[in-house]
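job 3f2a | input accepted
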Amino acid sequence: MYPLKTYYKKTGLFNDIPLRVPSRTINDKENFYPFVLYFNSNKGFSQYINQDVELSIIYNFGNFSSNKKYSNYFNSNSDYYSSFYGVYGIKTNDGTPFGFNQDDIDIDLLSKMPEYDQKYLVLPSIGLLPKNVTFKYKIKNIKENINYIDSNNWIKVDSIIKTNSPLHKYKKHHNGYIQYGIPPESNNIKEDYPIIDLYGRMYIKFFEEYDSTIVFYILANDKSTVNKIDKYILSNSYINKNK
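job 3f2a | predicted structure (243 res):
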């Protein structure tokens, strides 16, 4: 995956936005993949929202436990089951701030990024067709003027997201298995890709110097896990202005 990571980083927005996002261990039992990964989806996301944009994604997921053929993304006993953290960088063709109506955020438009991510990137990569993907959100809290990664004027949004679990019985190879491993064999899987509730968090800000909206995101089983990922990993990101 390292060559692809380098390719997507050098050909996307994060080649010009010198954002550094760490991968760290939260506890002694489990951690995340050793380094964050990158992906770009300009044409696909532009078609999805009917607007000409560039979209770049930084992401990470639960690492592989010892002697396991699957990552903790598939492990329903792990804190990091069905969980991701990372950053969306998005730039409009005309330079207007994506996801903002004057000083207010357009939460419906911003939610299209994780929705598209689940519907057309993550879950289809492990065998679930986009038409069968569920993604519904309910906003729990919005806070403005938040300080984050040594920067002010972020907007913080917490939500509950109803979407599909990655758990399913193996039938044939899917490209996503290269990243996440082979789903575990289990007689307890009574339904493929069951719908579950996850806790979501986003930090949103438009950066004039990059003509881009940056959105930090976390998706996890519960608020406690989101808080831990936020405190120990994501909030330790920084923009290296001396690049």
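job 3f2a | The chain has six helices and eleven strands.
job 3f2a | closed
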